[in-house]
Amino acid sequence: MSQHTLERFDAETNAAVLSLDAGVYPIDVVYGAAYALIDRAYVLLDKESRADGKGSRFLVHLRGKAKLDEAGVQALSGEFGNELLSQALRRKVVKQNGKLIEEIVTQAIAGATGASLPQDFVDDDDDDLDFLDDPLGIAVPWEEKFSKKA
Amino acid sequence: MATAHTLRLHRAMYMAQAIRDAMRVFEDFAKFSMERDGDHYAVAIADVDADVDGDLVGEFCNFALAHTIERKRRTPK
Question: How far apart are CA A24 and CA A32, in angstroms?
């Protein structure tokens, strides 16, 4: 269950305020969700301590760029909640696989620049073969190779 | 008609440099001033150009937020 609540909705100003438990969502996740909505809504983030002094909460002020009714604002805040979960999962995956991602990128960049190729890939054969040489007899036709001798 | 607004942007959520960037970008359309007010930056917006089509305050908020996020992403942790 998503830990965000629609605190206020004002149809006249087309605005809503959501509150999020700051202990549940890291600030990066809130930023990510806000960034995703920035093309459809005006977003203002705020933070306040709880009245009981235990922890704090984020306040997300959303105002639709287009005129929204209550259902529209509910949908927008629901979308914000979904985006929060998506960003939280994304953050977790990146955290878990960060080292692997870094290694793959490093190898890709090293490969592209030609730096530090493994020795197995370096052609250090110094023989004088050219493409016409056929030391293994691969180019010899089957009939020639296996025909019964008359 | 001249309108005035005061935005309160939390210092834990917005970077001062991002707010200054936003003030510079929108300076042709209104007068801006910023000062620290406890946990917030208080941004006063006055003399909004009457010809401005759209919500200047909202766009200013989005710009400051987007630039804060982009700056934080660029800054190594």
Answer: 15
pLDDT tens digits for range A68-89: 888 888 888 889 999 999 999 9
Query: Would you say B54 and A66 are in contact if contact means Cβ atoms under 8 Å apart?
Result: no
- Domain map (residue ranges) of chain A: 4-94
ipTM reported for the complex, 2 dp: 0.89
Task: Search chain A and give the residue with CA nearest B67.
Answer: A35
Class of domain A4-94: alpha beta
**Separation between Cα atoms, residue B9 and residue B42, nearest integer Å:** 7
Size of interface A-B (CB pairs under 8 A): 44
Which one-letter amino acid corresponds to residue A29? V
A94 vs B: CB within 8 A: no
C-beta separation of A89 from A97 below 8 A = no
pTM of full prediction above 0.90: no
The sign of the dihedral angle between the CA atoms of B57, B62, B63, B69 is positive
CB atoms within 10 A of CB B32: 19
pLDDT at A144: 82
Q: Is A4 helix (H, G, I), strand (E, B) or coil?
A: strand
> Closest Cα of chain A to B61: distance in Å?
6
